[in-house]
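Standup notes, protein team

Yesterday: finished cleaning the Neolewinella litorea set.
Today: Carboxypeptidase regulatory-like domain-containing protein structure.
Blockers: none.

Input for Carboxypeptidase regulatory-like domain-containing protein:
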Amino acid sequence: MKNLLLLLLPLLLLTACLDDEMAFTVEASPLKAEIVRLDNADPGTIAYAAVFTELDKDGILDHQVGIVATPAANLELDVYSQTQTLLQTVVTDADGRAVFSVPFADIEGVTRLEWSGSYRGKAFRILTNL
């Protein structure tokens, strides 16, 4: 019985955390991103194409309207490595498309890209694993 109490005592500490005590609040990105690696990049470079769209869910309950995806045009995005090193700044075109292309040497050891920007006053950061 004594051993059982000693085992349950650490579990008591784990149950004391409340949701109100979160270190930071995570909110959904205001944009949807589709990021794909391009196979036709120049030799010695790596390239990614990203399409950023805003999802208008006002007609979600109407089967004739549904969710409308609007391209995020002229959106300035900073692309960082996982060490917060700025790799490049790209801007989306009228279709919400941006291309990120760098030489292999510039991203040696990089395992994740972070696309960050601000849309309608709301900052966001979208992660992509390489």
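Follow-up from PR in the comments: The first helix runs from residue 2 to 14.
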